[in-house]
Fold this sequence. Notes:
five-stranded parallel sheet; Rossmann fold; 2 domains
Amino acid sequence: MPQRYLRGLASVAAAAAADDVAVVLVSFMRSGDFWREGAAKMGLDLGVLARAGRFVFVDGLTGLFAPALGRTGGAPPGADRVIFGSELGTVRRGIEAGLAAAHGAKTVLIVDQIDVLVAAAAPADNVTDLSVQSMLLSLRETPSQRAHATILTFAADDPLLQAQTTTLERRHAALVLSQTHAARTIVSLRKLDTGTARDVSGVMRITAAAHDDGHDDGDDGLRDDAEYLYHVGGDLSVRVFERGA
């Protein structure tokens, strides 16, 4: 099963390399410098890709607590786009502007930790799990925005999902679980069941959801579930491998 999954991933990666694909990354937890530094360690120059319109970064963190009055989401080509404020209309317009700035036949939208927006938004903006779900759904279903696929990341630690004693905890859990049920593929990380190991940091599990939405995406190689081990080195390099490898 792992071999079949890896072959499927390889075929998808090859297709993406051959296609004219752009990426729009929206992060509510990390600045653009964080992503550029991490990508550089993998030999990926996001600055060059940004100037070519193949990568657009939308910063949802820097301006999260800044007033939106008098601000504009415009940015020169290749520069980070900053969302000012936490009102969902402003957030959506910032994401849509990022999608419009991407130059690719297919655009992949990555939204990093929008659960932070639910936790940190101003009370007057009334940002709830339901309103965020509605916004994400509208972004996915707007053909003019050219989002070929959407990838969401969340903090999904067990204590965040199981306690649910406060309104914020309930909203966080509802948002994460609703998007989990809607996802076609789920990637999750956990620690080893047997404790710690010197050369293993934890387990990565990939679960393919059983959706039948009538779309043939050509991803038959990604239908099986798979589980791998991973290790984060002291230099923050990451190695993913099969059990026994």
